[in-house]
Amino acid sequence: MIGPKDIDRPDPAPVSRISLVSSATASATLASMGVNNTFIDGPVARTPGQSVAGPALTLHFLPRRDDQLAEEGDENVARRTALWQVLQMVRPGDVIVVDARGHTKTGCFGEMLVTYFSARGGKGIAVDGSIRDSAEAFSLGVGMWTRGVTPNYATQTTLYPWDFNVPIGCGGALVIPGDVVIADDDGAVVVPAALVDEVADRALKHEDWERFSRIKLAEGGDLIKYYPLNAEARVEFQQWKAANSPE
């Protein structure tokens, strides 16, 4: 029987800073640090314009085998699954990441469970699979990234929610409970918990000079000079930054 399993969450301050970083910049920053395969490939943004950054709770689906399950008709079966268990672990700011094996027929969440997740302060759900009640679920203010939608519920087809808060593979990315997930319209990226501070520092510096670069390119500036900044452009950037920094 699955017992309570909470996670070690990063300090709120670095999570707050990294929430200012886009998934694209986070992915590029991690790659520059030698950390690859952090993009969760498959789930796409179902709540356009929303972005989240928060510690990952994980949920692991495996193939269903009926000799391992309680008798059909037992109304308490669902309440004993890892799906119910992980939802009771949710704290404000958390993101649930689901390994549903890319299976699009199984609805890993529905309106009622997303409502509960939202009420507990959960910010985002990334599923390498599907959810049901999509119109209602996508309207609840929770950032949602899924591979698809389905009318089926979580234990109706060939998968079963076996475990939670264990390392999982989701869309080709390793997700360890407590890692920070950054997700926006480009998708979801996993930042290892131990690297959150460093990634935030590097990524925010990158996005700082990119703002200057974007201005110069919009003015018709030379691509070779301004993206990325060459030595001459970096001098201009420092002057621009000094002139535009709040006193």
Q: Care to describe what's here?
A:
The protein is an alpha/beta fold and about 250 residues long. It has 2 domains: about 10-190, 3-Layer(bba) Sandwich (Glucose Oxidase, domain 1); about 200-245, no CATH class. Helix content is about 30%, strand content about 25%. It is built from 8 helices and 11 strands. The chain has helices at about 10-20, 25-30, 80-85, 110-120, 135, 195-220, 225, 230-245; strands at about 40, 45, 50-65, 95-105, 125-130, 145-150, 160-165, 170, 175, 180-185, 185-190. Strands 1, 2, 3, 4, 5, 6, 7, 10 and 11 form a 9-stranded mixed sheet that branches. Strand 8 (about 170) and strand 9 (about 175) form a beta hairpin. Helix 2 (about 25-30) crosses helix 6 (about 195-220). The chain is elongated, with a radius of gyration of 20 Å. The termini are far apart. The mean pLDDT is about 90.
